[in-house]
Specification:
Helices cover 21% and strands 38% of the residues. It is of the alpha+beta class and 193 residues long. The longest helix is centred in the first third of the chain and has 26 residues. It is elongated, with a radius of gyration of 22 Å.
Length: 193
């Protein structure tokens, strides 16, 4: 009888410790922050969305997509256009504490599409149905492998002309700056800031 209770206690402790370890690994998930605005690069006609890894571990297996979606009066969603991103996957983003390492992995990335003019024309066309740009991002934690999927939608007023700053802020172009930008090199996406 004593042998039976010791085996039962060992089994329960094993199950509880396995569950606790699994739960801790589930809490270890990537914290990817997506910009609140989309940047429209007038010079190249591209749309830019910046993402940053704010967690203490690498974010791996990053996948992204951008689509123009319409919701009709009955509440159904229709994809009007799936944008072709220049690069829709990344192997990894470095943790936030490695952001000052110029030769290491990036902590931020700008996803870009060259279909900006066509997408904005469709987004701004008159229609009684609501239209939004929907950006979807999935990433896994480098330690636990826990995958997180995030989705953010943008209205037309969330599209800003300009470029991204060091973090996620948008530096909007003014009329004078637009004329000077013809002489300066401009952001074309696929970079870190």
């Amino acid at each position: 009888m004593e042998f039976f209770f010791s085996q039962l206690i060992g089994l329960l402790v094993g199950i509880l410790s396995s569950w606790a370890f699994w739960y801790v690994l589930l809490l270890a998930k990537p914290r990817i922050i997506i910009s609140k605005n989309i940047v429209f690069n007038k010079k190249k006609g591209s749309l830019l969305i910046k993402v940053m890894n704010r967690s203490r571990r690498q974010a791996t297996d990053i996948q992204a997509s951008l689509a123009l979606v319409e919701r009709d009066t009955t509440g159904r969603f229709f994809t009007l256009h799936s944008a072709q991103l220049r690069r829709d996957s990344l192997p990894a983003l470095a943790p936030k504490h490695e952001s000052h390492n110029p030769w290491g992995l990036r902590t931020a990335y700008v996803f870009a599409t060259d279909e900006g003019v066509q997408i904005l024309e469709k987004l701004s066309s008159a229609c009684q149905n609501e239209k939004r740009l929907v950006f979807t991002l999935s990433a896994a934690d480098g330690l636990s492998g826990t995958k997180v999927v995030q989705q953010i939608s943008y209205r037309l007023e969330d599209v800003k002309s300009g470029r991204f700053g060091v973090w996620l802020e948008v530096r909007e172009d003014e009329v004078q700056q637009l004329q000077q930008s013809k002489q300066d090199s401009d952001d074309d996406g696929d970079f870190i800031a």
